[in-house]
What does this fold into?
Amino acid sequence: MSSTIPYQERTSAEVVGLAEEEVPVIVLPNGERLEFPGCRAYKMSLSELEEYEGRYEYWYGPTETLIVVADEPRVSGDHELPAPYLMQLVQQIADECGAHFVPFGTVSIWDANAEGVPRVVMRPDQCLYLRPQSARLPDKDGLKLGFHTLPDVVLEVDHTTDIRRGKLHQYALWGFPEVWVEVPEAYTPSRRAGKPRLTIYVLEGSQYREVAASRALAGWTAAEIHRALNERLGWSSETTAALLRVARALTARLGTAGPEGTPRLRMHREEGREEGKRDLLCQQAALRFGEDVAKDLASLLADVSGENLTRVGGWIVTSHSGDELLRRVRENGA
It folds into this structure.
């Protein structure tokens, strides 16, 4: 299958013999079934996957099956927004508690067999590390299970899908400690995951349990996170209060001294917070796309300020390649 064929020109029947309305299923070696509502299945080899630049949810090596969102062209906007919004919210918490958090966006998670051959690849919408200084972070090729540290939080956006029947079970098998599933307020007739809300799942033993508040982010409630991710005209007073409360709790937990007690943040405040934001953006670009892209981005950001820096943060998360990121920065005059 060519990765250049537009989604709307493909049908699942062409590749795996399913009717349009059928739900793709992956059967694991132990007999467990992973279902992917709202998706379509295609045949794709590992070599093709490594060259593929499109979006996908899941790849299963034994059957060379690629799972993609069926309604991708129509829903990508509403699906993409929560991830960069979360990055901005978490950055505000980090600034308030004097910490450094690292969001990774759509990183590929690679699970290989004993010989090192990938057998499963899965993509979340956002990964968040709260203690990056003590973690082995993913690189530009992705997160390799057994080598890189698992993130503290994973965000999945269920706009027209329902990860509870597939991807959530895979996260549990891998031992991911906390998964957030956001169903946006934006309406779509093909929604499958129920009413708009955010659900927090924490791993207990080998299974997830739904909880009202995040363990990783110190009591930030599911309702508060959902509201913040869907505020399109700026943060409400309720969201601001929640961010400050979580920051205070994390300050105590992480042993930071708040913004006044952190030399790095104090320096940035004295010299201008925007310079610190440029540094952070370049660090995130380096982690996602490599040092060469980060150097080019640093040159482009030299004269960027204000809200444009926030826009660049969103582009780092939503761009599929370093070239796309740099092009968006140049074309938008950010």
User: Anything to note?
Assistant: Residues 237-254 form the longest helix (18 residues). Residues 277 and 309 are 7 Å apart (CA to CA).
